[in-house]
Specification:
The protein contains six helices and 22 strands. It is of the alpha+beta class. The protein has two domains: 2-211, Bactericidal permeability-increasing protein, domain 1; 245-462, Bactericidal permeability-increasing protein, domain 2 (Super Roll), CATH 3.15.20.10. Strands 2, 3, 4, 5, 6, 7 and 8 form a seven-stranded antiparallel sheet that branches. The protein has a six-stranded antiparallel sheet with strand order 11-12-1-14-22-21. Strand 7 and strand 8 form a beta hairpin. The protein is rod-shaped. The chain starts with a helix and ends in a 6-residue tail after the last strand. Residues 1-19, 251-269 and 294-299 have low confidence and may be disordered. Bound molecules: 2-acetamido-2-deoxy-beta-D-glucopyranose (7 copies). One 2-acetamido-2-deoxy-beta-D-glucopyranose is lined by residues 21, 224, 226, 228, 243, 247. Residues 28-251 form the Lipid-binding serum glycoprotein N-terminal domain. Residues 267-470 form the Lipid-binding serum glycoprotein C-terminal domain. This is BPI/LBP family protein At3g20270 isoform X1. It comes from Camelina sativa (False flax). Keywords: Glycoprotein, Signal.
Length: 480
Amino acid sequence: MVLTKVLLILVLCILTQSNNGGHISILVSKTGLESAKDFLINRVISTTIPLQLPEIEKKVRIPLIGKVRMGLSNIQIDSVDVHSSKIETGKDGIFLSVSGATANLSMDWSYTYRASFFEISDHGDAFVKVKGIDVKTTVTLLDDYGSLKVASRESDCTVENIDIHINGGASWLYQGVVDAFEKTIISTVENTVSKKILEKMKKLDSFLQSLPKERKIDDSAAVNLTFTGNPVLGNSSVKVAISGLFMPKGDDVKVSGSHSSPSSFFREVNRMVTISIEEEVFNSATLVYFNLVLMQAKVMHLVIGETKNGSILSTSDWKLILPELYKHYPDDKMMLNMSVTSPPAVKITENGIDATIQLDIAIDVQDSGKVLSVARISSVVNVVCSAEIVDENLTGSLRLNDFNATMKWSKIGVFQSDYVQAATSRVLEALFLPYVNTRLKRGFPLPIPSDFTVKNIEIAYANSAILVRTNIGTSTSTNH
Ligand SMILES: *[C@@H]1O[C@H](CO)[C@@H](O)[C@H](O)[C@H]1NC(C)=O
Ligand SMILES: *[C@@H]1O[C@H](CO)[C@@H](O)[C@H](O)[C@H]1NC(C)=O
Ligand SMILES: *[C@@H]1O[C@H](CO)[C@@H](O)[C@H](O)[C@H]1NC(C)=O
Ligand SMILES: *[C@@H]1O[C@H](CO)[C@@H](O)[C@H](O)[C@H]1NC(C)=O
Ligand SMILES: *[C@@H]1O[C@H](CO)[C@@H](O)[C@H](O)[C@H]1NC(C)=O
Ligand SMILES: *[C@@H]1O[C@H](CO)[C@@H](O)[C@H](O)[C@H]1NC(C)=O
Ligand SMILES: *[C@@H]1O[C@H](CO)[C@@H](O)[C@H](O)[C@H]1NC(C)=O
């Protein structure tokens, strides 16, 4: 479980841009890799210590005594101290090394031998200081049909020397143990540590393979989390890309995202992770929601009969804006049926997010129990969206930039252009945008596994992408 988390960081560290249809890329910077490294080392130590080593037994010839059967048991590494470690990226993969670490090892010793007619035996404990432990590990991660997998893993551990302190025993014991067991203890430590690390990497692999390929957003949509291409190893950074496109949930509407210039968005940043979300992700989202409604009703429409605060719309409220309407249908209940007539187009520039929405507004009234369509306005609305991160969700809110509105038809005579503008403005500001903003406020989850939290977020806009720069923490670790 814990290991999974460790691995996760590493994975996170790996998310980003090799553009085979990847629209979200995750770049783990040098600071991100450093944190991942410290996190991994601490987790590997805390999940493996105390580490039990196999027992060792030998028959040893001791001068003046003869053949002695000696054994070491309960050999256990109790603690490890790492002073120096580093993580590097290279063409062979991600390389993590620890150098000059020390460890405390405890064990029990025992011996027996025959002297004349007696069998003599004794036992006790010992303490071993293991010095100069160097560990080198290399992991290569590859895209395997949309999942990341550990393609190769290597681990090598070497120990420089050990100091053995024996409690009790006969005078010859210390030299006997050193002569017979020193090399074996060293090689046992080396082998066990290497083996243990390889086991951890195997778990990393299973963890990576188990990452979900899509994430449900709501009943209508899911996001495609398929990895698109191998992680790209930079100079002390790792980048992975995932599709990131929205897909309809539970049906087979095809959404295709065009690919924009995969320009290099990444500058030197001091956050651990930069998540780049291309505008295609947003366009795929509007397309999914649009297509979905299209299948049901041919247009994305929204019928509003009351304001957000629950008051019923009535022609009398609109007396000043649409006097003709009030004159024909005084104090009637009014409904606005808004239809988005083509998928909204989202554009991201250095200045922020803009979207253009084609919106038709049908004005209906309820007169003597019957719903009558009275007029229809066609508009092109430009909105500005500001993005924010709330919890682990990317949220936004729309602000009206400008709009065009024309009367398509009317049963109550031609409206003056000023009235059309005023009515549209009021519909947009008081009804349409608040409604859309309520949905956007909930937001959409960032592609960050649930065990992790984001901290110190900074949002920046680049040409055709949003950059979310953040530090990553876990529920157990403090910030870094
Ligand atoms: C998810 O994205 C990948 C990579 O672009 C693509 O191959 C795959 O077909 C997509 N999955 C679905 C269900 O659309
Ligand atoms: C190892 O043991 C020594 C002596 O008992 C102690 O001073 C040192 O702190 C121990 N090291 C670790 C990493 O626990
Ligand atoms: C990568 O790092 C090395 C050593 O720090 C440096 O010499 C080299 O120019 C860097 N390469 C790039 C592409 O930044
Ligand atoms: C409800 O909202 C409308 C406009 O959105 C406003 O004119 C009206 O005063 C509000 N009513 C209440 C009870 O707040
Ligand atoms: C809203 O308008 C659309 C398209 O004009 C129409 O199909 C739909 O029936 C209307 N809905 C209501 C409740 O009037
Ligand atoms: C409104 O129409 C004018 C002229 O057709 C056009 O230049 C302008 O960009 C339009 N504005 C919007 C918000 O579409
Ligand atoms: C994050 O977004 C998802 C999907 O829209 C939503 O279900 C969830 O409630 C949101 N979480 C928060 C804390 O708003």
